[in-house]
Each structure stands twice: as structure tokens, then as C-alpha cells.
Amino acid sequence: METCWLPEFTSDSVDVLVGAAESAVSPSCAILTHEFKGAASRVATEATAFGLRRDHVLVEIIAAYVDRSDKIEEQQHQAWARTARHVFNAMALPGGYPNLLAPGEPERVMKSYGPNAARLVEAKWHYDPDNVFRSAIPLPASMNRPTSPNLRFAGAAPIMPRSSEKEKENSSAGRAEAG
Predict the structure, then answer these.
(1) pLDDT < 70 regions, the chain
(2) Per DSSP, what are the bridge partners of residue 30?
């Protein structure tokens, strides 16, 4: 699967879409589009993780194939999907729908989150330091951990570094003795 965002449908983007669909390597390939308009585009960028808050069109390029053991068929389908996305590059917005991006595309992932990327990486390292949720939250694992001991997001209280299990035990024991 590949994805990109277009600012709008134009005659050029429709021509590219039709050409990509006509070059599909099997009937199991598809190109889906979703228009994002209205209320979703009026939310402040910093209010959510999603970085693109303007009217746009999401393009999903799906290359499904029946025989998962056929490596040649797999390569043909993956090549078609990649090529189909690349033909949109000249007109596409930076990034793509984050949850549809491949793990090997850290730059596109970060562009997808736009100005929210840095604070999302900070929150990711704080709440998921072992990268357990890597498939659900596709922030690059290779991103450096923030150096600030007190992370602060716009409009939010600071996030303090996690205390060790030993510190938690000691503070629990101290409360029990004081009570």
C-alpha cells in the first residue's frame, strides 16, 4: 500500500490517477480517494496529532495479490504501487496519511505530522520508551530521545520523566509508614 495527499482534484491529477489505474498489474489493484473538507480542515493544527488541517484529497494505492508465496508477483505489485505514488509527486503535498506509511519512510512520517512532529516524538519517548506501539503510532524509532527532562507541550502541564520502580516502591513504603 502507498499513500499521498493532493491539495485538490485537478484535470492533471485525474489524468495521473487514470493512467496509474490503467497500468495496474492485476484486477486486485485499486486506487481509492477520500476528500477531507469542512470541519476536519478547520481544526487547529496543534489541537490533534494529525498535521494536515486544510482541504485535501487522500490517495490510497492498494496492490493486493492472491498468491503470497509468489515473490515475482509480490515484487510486481509493490513496484506498481510505488510507481503509482511517484507519478503524483509533482502535485502531492508533503507526507501522506501517517498510519498508511511504511516503517522505512521516517521523513514522510515526520512531514505527515507537520509542526506536531516534535511534540509527538517527545510524548512517544515518554509514554512508549520501548517502542511497543510502533505499528499503531508510526513515529520513527530512530528519532533521538528528547534531551529536556521536563517536556512541555503547548497548553499542557510538563511531563516529568518516569521514576524508577525502586523510587516508586520507596515512596509507597514511606506513605504507608506515615499513615
Answers:
(1) 135-138, 140-179
(2) 62
